């Protein structure tokens, strides 16, 4: 079955010419899915955010507005067949009500299904992932509610087969109350059930069982001057692992942004964070940021500021985020660095996190192939609990091709290495088909 699937998809990828339709739902949605293994955006998402189809980059998000889409969550492995019902269209959905069904079908070869440091087991995995989303769009209201479920079928170790290995539900909504006031609400839920291994948001193996993540994020943005806006945001994030720790994070933010010129924007942001596990920890973060269009093909942003944590030691640290992207003649390079504190599935307490990611996406190649490569490094260290530092590394490559206006084929490879209490390596290669088509409801 797996060999037939791989052979059939390979024949489709190399024989069918791409359609003349550009920017159809399947292609647009495929650019907006977070990488599930690392929790970082895939290169196409960052490139689309930095360099859309227009000659200038998309401006930063409205202050206080939380990002759309499901939060980074624990997953059963560094691969995904992704029906993509959650992402908003780059050019906006059609007006009125619509429904967006999707179906993902993949064949994967995993050389370390347990993500173990020794006695590795490999297996062929067939993954089926149906999904559906219901949405509404108008000049003042945008709404989308969707969900998906995944079935994993193991060819050799069939005891690991799960008809419902993961589920995701997501709500994304925005309401333009007045020309100057915008309200938003995002809510997400994800669940992963695995008897082999669960990898959390930081790329660390945290065991097996059932992992769940909840997130609710309302926001308000008010543009009180043509170039100046303020924003209020709140986010509740909860994660838990069966037989392991559960963590809660409450985050409230107040931000001020001002566009100094067509190429420059400044941002001031204050954030209060409350972390709850066995105890309660509070943090105050004040950051100043700047984004600049350095040229027609280059954009950069930086944000940095102090973090004061109210714990047993009353520690002070630094939060920072740096993004850079440059569009070359033969592709786009994106670089990102982040330093912060956060909670993570299967890890007790707050984690000090440093992450670096890089990606390169080529323009459409022969017969419409899209090729991208990526690399990431994440270091996490318990900030309030005793524990060991964990470092995870990842390398990936993906070749994608839109076969029809509603069907996309992908071939991918992913290597991960975890350096912590024990060393773990994992290689996953796979091929997948994703079908997604939008139906207006008249």
List the helices and strands and how they pair.
Elements (H helix, E strand, L loop, with lengths): L1 H14 L9 H6 L12 H8 L45 E15 L12 E15 L3 E14 L7 E17 L2 E14 L14 E17 L2 E14 L4 E16 L2 E13 L3 E16 L2 E13 L5 E13 L2 E14 L2 E15 L8 E13 L7 E13 L4 E13 L3 E14 L2 E3 L1
Antiparallel strand pairs: 1-2, 1-18, 1-19, 2-3, 3-4, 4-5, 5-6, 6-7, 7-8, 8-9, 9-10, 10-11, 11-12, 12-13, 13-14, 14-15, 15-16, 16-17, 17-18
Care to describe what's here?
This protein is mostly beta strands. It contains three helices and 19 strands. The chain has an 18-stranded antiparallel barrel. The relative contact order is 0.17.
Salient structural properties:
442 residues, mainly beta, globular, Porin, single chain
Class, according to the CATH hierarchy?
Mainly Beta
Secondary-structure class: mainly beta
Average pLDDT metric: 80
The overall number of domains is: 1
Oligomer: single chain
Q: Radius of gyration, rounded?
A: 21 Å
Helix content: under 10%
Number of helices: 3
Order of helices and strands: HHHEEEEEEEEEEEEEEEEEEE
- The CATH architecture comes to Beta Barrel
- How much of the polypeptide forms β-strand, as a percent range? over 45%
Terminal residue distance: 40 Å
**Any idea of the CATH topology?**
Porin
For the biggest sheet, the summary is: 18 strands, antiparallel, barrel
How many strands? 19
Shape: globular
Enumerate the spans where pLDDT stays under 50 for 5 or more consecutive residues: 1-91
